[in-house]
Design brief:
Blueprint lengths: L1 H22 L6 H11 L5 H8 L7 H10 L19 E4 L10 E8 L1 H12 L2 E2 L5 H11 L6 E9 L2 E4 L22 E5 L5 E4 L5 E6 L1
Antiparallel strand pairs: 1-2, 2-8, 3-8, 4-5, 4-6, 6-7
Protein name: C-type lectin domain-containing protein
Keywords: Disulfide bond, Lectin, Signal
InterPro entries: C-type_lectin-like (IPR001304), C-type_lectin-like/link_sf (IPR016186), C-type_lectin/snaclec_domain (IPR050111), C-type_lectin_CS (IPR018378), CTDL_fold (IPR016187), EMBP_CTLD (IPR033816), Eosinophil_major_basic (IPR002352)
Length: 213
Amino acid sequence: MKGCLLLPLLLLGTVSALYLEKDAPHLGDPETQADLSQDLEGSGGQEGELALSGEVPELEGEEAEDTHDDEGADPDDLDEDVQCPREEETVQLPGSPECKSCRYRIVRTPKRFKKAQRVCRRCYRGTLASIHSLSVNCLIHRLSVTTNQAQVWIGGQLRCGRFIWTDGSCWNFTYWAAGQPTCGRGCCVALCTRGGRWRRAPCKRRLPFICSY
């Protein structure tokens, strides 16, 4: 009698195991790996500590050249050739709750990082935007999609192995995409219009940009 009962139970267990294996996602699948990376993005491990402190491993090759290319003369000495964008090329944003007097302006015309900074300085008496909270990041991200571009410049830049804001404010908030900034390339920081996360990008890349003033 016991043998008759065990056989159906064993068959049921085998079928259940095969069913679970079929429906369960495999860790080797690319989509599953991507989901895991996103889940680990805010885990606060060594990469998170490096991101918040602004420190990254020593640069080599193209990245070192990218940093060197963007350093040099004082931007104020180079303003003579800057042409201010037409009004229709920009979108003005209101200030954030944390800084009601702050103003942001998206310039849709793509520029290299250094040229974008010069436009912000000369045309709006400001700098590329620094971001110090999630609410400000969300505000800028929400309206950055009007550029119809994948990324926009913000004011983060890698100098001497550390990230800084071009306006000199404290590097006290980050919103990096998975794998960033450690595995990123380039020494300037761009905000992704899809998701609002940050990525390193070569400073010579031409992107729309956001000024704060």
